[in-house]
Amino acid sequence: MTVSVFIGTSVDGFIARPNGDLDWLPEGGGEPHGYDEFMASVDALVIGRNTFETVLAFPAWPYGEKRVVVLSSRPVDLSAAVGGVVEQMAGPPAEIVARLSASGAHHLYVDGGVTIQGFLRAGLVQRLIITRVPVLIGDGIPLFGTLPRDVRLRHVATRHYPSGLVQSEYLVAS
User: Fold this and answer.
1) 10, 11, 26, 135, 141 from 14: Cα distances, Å
2) C-beta atoms surrounding 173 within 10 Å
3) Hey, which residues does 141 pair with through a beta bridge?
4) 2-172, superfamily in CATH?
5) 57-100 tens-digit pLDDT
């Protein structure tokens, strides 16, 4: 099972404002930067409840018919994801990965600050694709939190785009 992160951050390392707002991201999704190709390689997305609620405010469900797993120990109204293939799970990251692997998933996309941090702490993330947006927002939800140990990364590639986006890809070193 491969677990990947594909996420945008402000240059100062935030993935959203303190209230979860994403208004600092480029309008209209910006130029193509590999997201569609990445999504084509993914069997399922694993997101936290907060990320799910943020996505529900988008004009349309952004994940098409891709399987989406919402992590929450409290009941979640999944019917709000009109047109989505959404289910809920709870438990530690290793258990979630085992359950999804047993159901046939081979490549997971983990998204959302708390969820990414939990999967990193559990040592389950193999690949990080981080796109830095040329803006400083000063405060917000950080991409990374505390870790029990250093997570060594191996740089794979860095790409830059005309809009100023800079995307770096890393593999987690064993």
Assistant:
1) 5, 8, 15, 10, 5
2) 9
3) 16
4) Dihydrofolate Reductase, subunit A (3.40.430.10)
5) 988 999 999 999 999 999 999 999 998 999 999 999 999 999 99
Domain ranges in the chain?
2-172
Closest to 116 measured CA to CA, from 149, 141, 89: 141
pTM over 0.85: yes
Decide: 167 and 132 in contact? Cβ < 8 Å: yes
Place of tokens 């047109």: 83
d(CA 123, CA 142): 19
| CA-to-CA dists, residue 158 to 128, 132, 144, angstroms | 12, 11, 19
